[in-house]
Each structure stands twice: as structure tokens, then as C-alpha cells.
Design goal:
single chain, 343 residues, TIM Barrel, eight-stranded parallel beta barrel, 9 strands, 46% helix, Bact_Lucif_Oxidored, CmoO-like, oxidoreductase activity, acting on paired donors, with incorporation or reduction of molecular oxygen, Luciferase-like_dom, Luciferase-like monooxygenase
Amino acid sequence: MRLSVLDQSTIVTGRSPDASIRESIALARHCEALGYHRYWCAEHHNSDSQAGTAPEILIAAIAATTRYIRVGSAGVMLPHYAALKVAEQFRVLEAIAPGRIDLGLGRAPGSDGLTAYALNPLADKAAEQFPATVRDLLAWVSGEKPVEGHPFRDVRAQPAGPTAPEVWILGSSDYGAQVAAYFGLPFCFAHFITDGRGAAEALSIYRDTYRPSARHPAPHAAICVWALAADTPEEAAHLFRSRELWRLGRDRGVYAALPSPEEAAAHIYSEDELTRLGRLRERALYGTPDVVMKKLRALAAMHQAEEIAILTTLHDAAARQRSYTLLARTCGLRAPEVGLAAN
């Protein structure tokens, strides 16, 4: 089972949002040294919770300061952009780090409706045309021409080169699974968004309807989960307090900066909130590394996932690095020799 990383450049209380971007770059280097397979950067806009508004720029910084870990997006929210421009951006990234770039695509806005409109006044229409936009993007990013009769068939996405980014479809519903299967692309289900609801159905549809492609003759399924490992159960529970309070807000539609465990401990919880926290703790993946890894392996087996991407949002940057370290050691990850790409 491959382990990878999803990073949202989480904003935390007491630190400026720009610090989250620098922490992402440092964490990517840390995870490369541990042997993680991929490092994916998320896209969110107008958020007090996540600072990662431009994954293509953050990917460039990470790719330029790492040597073998795959680096990519999870994802580029395609309805905001023209397919040609995204193809050009990721062709440039591929030139920076040949054979190491992933282009994960999503259809969700990654923002509120007003912000989505500010990014692209035609975003709603673009979302409806998502499959056609994916089709065009696949051609351009691979150095091929769009379909016959396309008005921009003779337009090329530079810089050309011998390798191309690996395109993924990301989603938390059946829709993304169907698009990935139709185009013969890898698919990652956002388990951390739904707490696993819908994962089995989406991944089953993906495998049952998969159409082999030249690059991916067989389906490749991954799931992305929120997980936290610490040296002791007590420390894990303490660190998890931040996630607990933040999730209570998210479930009400409030996307705030991640509080510290101490701030969360000082919060006065209502009876309803305590009930909801009990359900959250039952489903959550946190604890000592052996406990968390056992649950991750069980999830991978349940969903026949070849890969798991781990999202860990903690207030303390050192504790977050420690969590990834513990999971890597428990899983037996080992960094490849310098100079070898993690293909």
C-alpha cells in the first residue's frame, strides 16, 4: 500500500496565513525524506481555514526544492479555469520536475458561490461541461490535438517535452468516479469530506465501468483520509481536540482557523455538541501509529485501494511532522535513492 500526503495549507490561530504556505514547503521536504509517494496541494478560495489558493504555484516551489517525491494538485478546481491555461501551467511544472507531476482535477468550487462567480462568472456552466473540459485538457497536457472539429485544434500547450503529468480525477460522489472511469484515469475518493459515506459505491462504479487507457490499462483507486498519529494515546487525544472543535464549526458551515488544543479544551460544549463529538471520535483515525496504521490497512482492504493519501491538520507544525514520521516508520516506508523518481 502506497502512502501519500494531502496538504490544505491549513490556517491556524495565532499565526498569519502566509506562514501556512511556508510550512507546506517544509512539510513536503520532510515527507519526501520519509518515503511518501506523492505530495498533493489543495485549492480553496476566500477561506479562513485554508491558505492554499494557487496549488500550481505551491507545486512549483515544492517541485523545485525536492528531488523524487511526486508533486501535484488535489486538486485544480477546473470550472474556474480554461483547459488550455491549466495545461500550460502543468506543462511548465512537468518541465521543472519531469516525471513527477500529478494533475488532480475536481469539479467542486472549493469556495462559496460568490467567490466562484468572482473567479469565473460562467462557473456554473463550466461545471456542467466538466467532462468535455477534461477531454480537452487531457489532449493539451499530453501534447496531443483536441478532437476533430475542435475550434482550437491547432493550438498547442507549451512547453512540449517527452513526459506528461499524470492526470487524476478527485471526488466525493459517484460523479467523479464515472468521469474517471470513462477517461481511464486514476480516481481518488475524498473520504475525509464524507467520513467514508459513499466511498464503497463510488469506487465500485469506478471499477465496474472503467475503460482502459493507454497510460492506465487498469483502474487505480485511492482514498484520502484525515489521520493523526502520536507517541501516546493521551497525546493523540490532546492534539485531536483541535480537529474536534473545527469539525463542529465546519458542520455548521463555519470555516475558521484551526484552534489550538488548549483553545478547544477551553470551549464550553453543549449537550448536542458532546453527542456529535462522540460520533466523530468513533469514526476518526487518531491514536498511536500502530492503531492508526491498522485502521488504514483495513480501509484500504475494504475499498481495494492501492493508495491512501493522508491529510493531517494540526495546530503545531512539529506535531504534524511527527505524525507523518510515525506513520511512515510503522508502514515501513523508505525514501528512494537520491536521483530516482518515485514513479
